[in-house]
Automatic annotation (TrEMBL):
Residues 382-534 form the Thiamine pyrophosphate enzyme TPP-binding domain. The keyword Transport does not apply. Signal peptide: none annotated. It is an enzyme of class 4 (lyase). This is Glyoxylate carboligase. It holds the Pfam family TPP_enzyme_M.
Amino acid sequence: MEAVAAVMESEGVDTVFGIPGAAILPLYAALRKSGIKHLTVRHEEGGTHAADGWSRATGKVGVTIGTSGPAGTNMITGLYTALADSIPMICITGQAERAKLHQEAFQAVDIVEIAKPVTKWAVQLKEPAQAAWVFREAFRIARSGRPGPVLIDLPIDVQRGTCLYDASADAPLPVDVPAPRAQPVNAAVQMLLEAERPIILAGGGVIGAEASDELRQLAEYLQIPVQVTLMGKGAFPEDHPLFAGMAGLQTQTRWGNASFLESDLVLAVGARFGDRHTGDLETYRQGRKFIHVDIEPTQIGKVFEPDLGIVGHAKPTLAALCDTARRSAPQHSAGQWVERVAHLRSTLLRRDDFDDVPIKPPRVFREINQTFGPDTTFVTAIGLYQIWSGQFQQTFKPRHYMVCGQAGPLGWEIPAAIGVKSAFPEKQVVVVVGDYSFQFLMEEIAVAAQYKIPFVIVMVNNEYLGLIRQAELGYDMNYAVDLHYGEGGIDHVKLMEAFGCPARRVEQPGDIADALSWATLESEAQQLPVLVEVMVEREANAAMGPSLNHINEFEPAPDLVPLAD
């Protein structure tokens, strides 16, 4: 286990998240001799989400640790979340002795088989001599190709073993960064030059590949508007003249949908065409060609067949596209298409300046945008507040907007924020959370309080399951969603105070800005998480399709005139 700790340190791991238990104590004993900091979480799922947040913030492989049995099964949701969002992470579990595994020993479960569907690799360490090499391979697999999680199961007798290991003679295994072939790159550039209304769609793969600079260079050279997916938010600055918003069914801008529907070519980089982005594929594809760039070959054609597929790492692929464009055509100037997107951006905005009481949710995000600067890192999860966040929150830098995209586990935000802030203590971190999601893993507030991890929590509280209620509108089954907070439910302000953390409730729109400023100062002064609970209109709807089961079209946008010939 001392070799394992040495491998983790050399792979850039300085903080791990977990809960000790009898079946994992030899590893913990080794960690005490290392330079790795350990944060004891309150639930193993919280540990996985914290490691997830740490990984998203750093770009490195996050690590979470648990003991045997239910510790591993509690990690499954976090593994699924990391796999869905392409986050490199390693989960380490303790296990009963190898000789006891077939005897239904205490807390002995075949966690490797359980974890296989939600990991890139799940393995049980069989021999002490393999320890360093299995962990080296785990880090390589987690970072290679489409990144994702790995689970390593450690029987207690293997942990107690010894091995020959010289850290000075070892180093991380190389990770392949596949460059694209020249032929499809040339073909893609030709398609971009021939298109009248091209757009670039930047997915989470651009952020994972640290390819934002290459993306901007290509867009600026050819003057192509850029859209982002929810996972790609931050890949392109939203105040850039070429930013074309977001298309989709939920997290979208009106002018983003309008721009997408007027486009005739889409260069998608590191995007997986999730159903909440595409909606009805006939509408999504009609009238436009697609170029799909992805590091994972089997992603291309998975949702629909593109006109051109390019296999390659986003960074060298975007660089190759830009180099080829420079050799093929002079620097482009902003033309009619860029002007058209700018017109849509200025005319198809959603209101956020409401003064109504109860507070309308868009006003909350207006105040968030005005209070926090471009260097702020935001963390948010799933529900109506995520949809409003995607529609209204402004993001300017990669790795500054953390969101659980495909899996969408409630409760993700608080532990993920602990991971983000642990990675970069100097950064300002703001959590945007719903009242129901907050309660899923609210015990992790104790972790932030214990280790003096400060961040601001903005709770958008509509007092019941707003997204479920909105989804039920078309089914005439609006029941069992009211949480009755005013009738014996949770007082979130008192809850935070019970953890020793400051909190304030806001019910007037004019008080939001002052409360956010107070929370920022209070959080840093006391080195604690601070809650601002904003009570919003109970039945406020997010702008999206008519149902969550079969959303078939984009929100219509007025004043769509075709480009002149």
